[in-house]
Specification:
Blueprint lengths: L1 E3 L7 H10 L4 E5 L2 H7 L2 E4 L5 H7 L5 E4 L12 H15 L4 E5 L11 H15 L3 E6 L5 H4 L4 E3 L2 E4 L11 H14 L6 E4 L7 H12 L5 E3 L2 H10 L4 H15 L9 H6 L6 H7 L1 H6 L6
Parallel strand pairs: 1-2, 1-4, 2-3, 4-5, 5-6, 6-9, 8-10
Antiparallel strand pairs: 7-8
Helix pairs in contact: 1-7, 4-5, 8-12, 9-10
The structure holds NADP nicotinamide-adenine-dinucleotide phosphate.
Pfam families: NmrA (PF05368)
Protein name: SDR family NAD(P)-dependent oxidoreductase
InterPro entries: Ergot_Alk_Oxidoreductase, NAD(P)-bd_dom_sf, NmrA-like
């Protein structure tokens, strides 16, 4: 049995489908039974903050996909770190033979937002978890659907990426890699850096978005500090704005521009291009209010 956490999320819903298509036994860990029913697989209702619900969901489970959203701290700590460390401990106690952990591109100690959080979780997994495999994806193409890709104002993309390029990846490709690893327990002790097939700057991203949704989307670039001030004025917490600006400066310096062969190596096919993602999601992008005027 494979337990999928974050099953209703951008990666999880693709992963559940991929595993079902392979006729593998899947149990989704969901907070909302209605969302669980919509997935079309066995599901366990619970919450990562409710240890007994997770322990129950882990009964009879061989492999776990570990993914949760959220970097916003509650009472000064990131819930993701505590939740995932606890999930790792429970998985070990349950005798799980593999945890495939969804991490982030280039995690590091003290990194901003999720970068440091995932590093701390990875360390816990390596030091005290069950056998592990780590996926370190670059930024998600799906961020353009959820509004996380760039903060938008007046229908344009705003950021502080400069000319820095990013090798955005489609969450369906991340899910395909996870499915391959969970299907046969491969990749134990391995870390895979996952990227899309090309690195794009945000002027190019805006031009391609424009062509897809049929109106002009401009990319408006700001200095990192200026951008942090704009975000703060919009109600984003000051600490988050400052951290986001620092991460954007890293992007501007080219730290998210590399491409890797990991998706092809794991799945046997090339990762989806940004244009393919845009075409597949054209209607949703046209309707997305964060890109609407
Ligand atoms: N966005 C990017 O570009 C990017 C790039 C690299 C790595 N990442 C990492 O990817 C991960 C996923 O981020 P995302 O924003 O795309 O989220 P997501 O996977 O689309 O959604 C979060 C999932 O976690 C579930 N969840 C949240 N809190 C939970 C809890 N307390 N108990 C049980 N389930 C819970 C949510 O369930 P509900 O349906 O109930 O809300 C949802 O299924 C994060 O760790 C992030 O750091 C993101």
């Amino acid at each position: 049995m494979i337990l999928v956490t974050g099953a209703t999320g951008s990666i999880g819903r693709h992963l559940v489908r991929e595993l079902l298509e392979r006729d593998l036994p899947v149990r989704a860990f969901v907070r909302d039974a209605a969302k669980g029913r919509a997935l079309g697989c066995e599901f366990a209702v619970g919450d990562l903050d409710d240890l007994s619900s997770l322990a129950t969901a882990l009964k009879g489970v061989d492999r776990v996909f570990l993914n949760t959203g959220g970097v916003v701290p509650v009472d000064g700590e990131q819930p993701m770190v505590r939740q995932q460390r606890t999930a790792i401990d429970l998985a070990r106690e349950a005798g799980v033979s593999q945890v495939v952990k969804l991490s982030v591109w280039q995690p590091g100690p003290g990194g901003k937002l999720s970068v440091g959080a995932h590093w701390a979780i990875e360390r816990h997994l390596k030091e005290s978890g069950p056998p592990w495999t780590i996926l370190q994806p670059n930024a998600f193409m799906q961020n353009f659907l959820t509004g996380q890709a760039a903060f938008t104002m007046n229908g344009d993309l705003h950021g502080a990426y400069g000319d820095g390029r990013m090798s955005y990846i489609d969450c369906a490709d991340i899910a395909a890699c996870a499915a391959r690893l969970l299907a046969d327990g491969g990749g134990i002790g391995e870390t895979y850096a996952l990227s899309g097939p090309e690195a794009l700057d945000h002027h190019t991203v805006a031009a391609r978005l424009s062509a897809t949704i049929g109106r002009t989307v401009r990319y408006v670039d700001h200095a990192p500090e200026e951008f942090a001030s704009i975000l703060t004025a919009q109600g984003v917490p000051a600490w988050f704005a400052a951290d986001a600006a620092a991460l954007y400066a890293d992007t501007a310096a080219g730290q998210l521009a590399a491409t890797t062969s990991a998706v092809r190596d794991l799945t046997g096919r090339d990762p989806r291009t940004f244009d393919e993602f845009l075409m597949a999601n054209r209607d949703r992008l046209r309707a997305a209010t964060h890109l609407g005027r």
